[in-house]
Amino acid sequence: MNNNEYIRLSLELHLFFDRIMKEHSLFLEAAFLEKDAKLKQVAQEFQKSFSNILNKIVYLANGNVTNQLLASNEIVTKNTYLAESQTRKLTGGFIDVDITLNELNLKSGRVKVTNELLNEISTINKQTIPLVENLIKFKNDILNSVLSCKLYTTNYPLLISHIMNEAKMYHNLLSRVESRSPFTKNELYEQEIFWNTIMKEHAEFIRGLLDPSEHNLILTADKYADEYKKIIRNYRNNPTYLTNASLNETIKFRDFKVTGEEGILNCKIKSIIIPLLADHVVREANHFIRILENINT
Ligand SMILES: [Fe+2]
């Protein structure tokens, strides 16, 4: 992997995943009870650490990222700022919305390789990898406490393992980039199965977090979960064909998520979905769409 590729991939990974990690921490924090104040505090510290890293990365990324990345809406969407403002009011949690405004102003451009930029990125990567390891451990501990009935939280156990798997994916990808080993075609297909599974689980979470009176939306979410189950089941037979199937399905599902998010932001849908979670799942679909489009070219 040359310097150019190393910088581009590092910036792309951080811009997408640091925000994902900081939001996971907020979702964890918001779902603990008052009696578990210690856990709330640990989650908040993770949120602040990832916010700090993301802040630095946004500064370094300006003029050094592709137009394709910015246009994918995986870093930030037109609704992120509003979703954050509403979430801040509803949960009382800390959210640095200035990062979002800076992200919305990011400019694309060719990577300008300098020793200074290489060093700064390498320092940030080396600082992020152990932080992600700690977050994986934190999520794993929470999951074990929930599964052994020692802890109550309003997050589903599947959601906790889901966000732990995303942290493991980030850790894996960032470690690979930092050691400058390029990805093989097979690994790209592994990523594709991973994100199809994530999409299936999103459909299941949406179904379970909607108010029981939202019959039609529940049925639609269920239909998406089934479609993704089929894709995952058939995957090994014909990966090339399934890249197109995943892409078509995920574009439709992303549009469903956007409509859902706007319904939640406008208070038109009854649910227990945190507004920022609704935006978060849209960005993950956008990220997957960009991966699929790159596999296809
Ligand atoms: Fe996530």
Protein model, in words:
With 297 residues, this protein is mainly α. It folds into two domains: 153 residues; 115 residues, Up-down Bundle (Ferritin). 77% of the residues lie in helices and 0% in strands. The chain is built from eleven helices and no strands. α1 runs antiparallel to α7, α2 runs antiparallel to α6 and α9 packs antiparallel against α10. It is globular and about 55 Å long. The chain starts with a helix and ends with a helix.
Layout of secondary structure:
Layout: H1 3-31, H2 37-61, H3 67-71, H4 80-91, H5 97-104, H6 115-147, H7 157-178, H8 185-209, H9 215-234, H10 239-265, H11 275-296
The protein binds fe (ii) ion (FE2).
Concise account of the structure shown:
With 297 residues, the protein is mainly α. 77% of the residues lie in helices and 0% in strands. It has eleven helices and no strands.
What characteristics describe this protein?
single chain; 297 residues; mainly alpha; Ferritin; 2 domains; 11 helices; 77% helix; globular; binds fe (ii) ion
- Enumerate the distinct ligands: fe (ii) ion
Number of domains: 2
Proportion of strand residues: under 5%
Instruction: Outline the low-pLDDT stretches.
Output: none
How would the global form be characterised?
globular
Write the H/E string, N to C. Answer: HHHHHHHHHHH
How much helix, percentage-wise, in residues?
over 70%
Main sheet specs: none
How does the helix and strand content classify structurally?
mainly alpha
